[in-house]
Prior knowledge:
Blueprint (H helix, E strand, L loop, with lengths): L4 E5 L7 H14 L2 E9 L1 H4 L9 H21 L4 E9 L1 H11 L4 E6 L4 H6 L2 H6 L5 E6 L3
Amino acid sequence: MPYQRILLAADLTEENLQVVEKAVRLCSTYNAKLVILHVIESLNYAYGGDVPIDITDIQLQLHTSAQEKLDTLCEQINCPVDKAIISQGGIESEIHRIAQEHDSNLIVVGSHGRHGLALLLGSTANGVLHGAPCDVLAVRVKN
């Protein structure tokens, strides 16, 4: 069954361009719709609870910066983007939620190929794989 709706989970870094290129090629091959998602991990979530300072301004700056990078990415790729989304929360859970909301057939995510302790503790790609509502393609990111 060909993929019709592909969700690209983008971290908006230079090394993530390999992942973007793979998602664009898949969209072209299958004539699929592309949704790009960038998740800003909530600082409260990242630190396991309450942060003792007001982080509203920091979160706003993170969102503004991410929006600029996402807009630039959408302009640069050679593929129509059905939707570009910035979400905030737990990375894996937000990717799962958006994939389900948009009825995605495939999630494309970058993988750094960690070894040893980093591998045992898990990774974003591993977290996305477990509990995903569809297929997941982990693209090896070469440094």
